[in-house]
């Protein structure tokens, strides 16, 4: 089948049209499908979560690729950019979709805590003192079996005519949903900081009137977590993100880690 035009680019893979009914995620040189295929099959088996159906895993000129069904529609990010006046509506939607996803309990063994610890331990980007602090903090991660996307943001939600569809399950983990909310919160604030706005701690969210704050308020209202719990996750989540070496976020993440450690130590004294 002929590979069509590129419809999305990412750090590890690019996405192309693949005939009329499919898209193909073609991984760049040096990157592998890894667990994404297995993750996608697991998610496809859950009726309450809408995700693109995995069709096949193939190889093209030495690079691995995954074929998915094509979902027609804009991403939530595209809608927000076109309709900035409706950002509260989409922030509420993002929170509701994630909350419903977290209510889906997996039969798989929880792996979120161990995967997070592994990523922090193996990183050369994190100072030893921060690494030790973050690893100690991972003891707060519980052993629940919630589906955690761990890359949940408006760019990974397609708004199809049949409703929202969650895409890109490469990072999915099973475990404590608070880690997933913390990750989304951090990514939304990182996006804000790229636009020249001073990065702020999650503790300040109630004072803000932006997409992130509306999302967080809505999730907290619906879920069984509170801001103090999420504050405990800041160093863990920022350390994991720093380990992924996304250069344009490094300064933001370092600032979040420094401020969070100071806040937590100040509260314990």
Write the layout of secondary structure elements.
Blueprint: E1 3-9, E2 13-18, E3 22-27, H1 36-44, E4 54-60, E5 63-69, H2 76-82, H3 87-103, H4 112-122, H5 128-137, E6 146-148, E7 157-160, E8 163-166, E9 173-175, H6 177-194, H7 211-222, H8 227-243, H9 250-268
Antiparallel strand pairs: 1-2, 2-3, 3-5, 4-5, 6-9, 7-8
Helix pairs in contact: 3-7, 4-8, 5-8, 6-7, 6-8, 8-9
Brief summary:
The chain has 269 residues and is an alpha+beta fold. It is 45% helix and 17% strand. The chain folds into two domains: 3-69, Phosphorylase Kinase, domain 1, CATH 3.30.200; 76-268, Aminoglycoside 3'-phosphotransferase, Chain: A, domain 2.
The chain-level structural class is alpha+beta
CATH topology description of the largest domain: Aminoglycoside 3'-phosphotransferase, Chain: A, domain 2
Question: Globular, elongated, flat, extended or rod-shaped: what is the shape?
Answer: globular
Percent strand? 15-25%
Number of strands: 9
Strands ordered across the widest β-sheet: 1-2-3-5-4
Strand count, sense and barrel status of the largest sheet are: 5 strands, antiparallel
Q: Rg from C-alpha positions? A: 19 Å
Order of helices and strands: EEEHEEHHHHEEEEHHHH
- In the CATH scheme, the class of the largest domain would be Alpha Beta
CATH-wise, what's the superfamily of the largest domain?
Answer: Aminoglycoside phosphotransferase (APH), C-terminal lobe
Helical proportion, percent range = 40-55%
From the coordinates shown, what is the CATH architecture of the largest domain? Alpha-Beta Complex
- The total tally of domains equals 2
Give the number of helices.
9
Mean pLDDT: 92
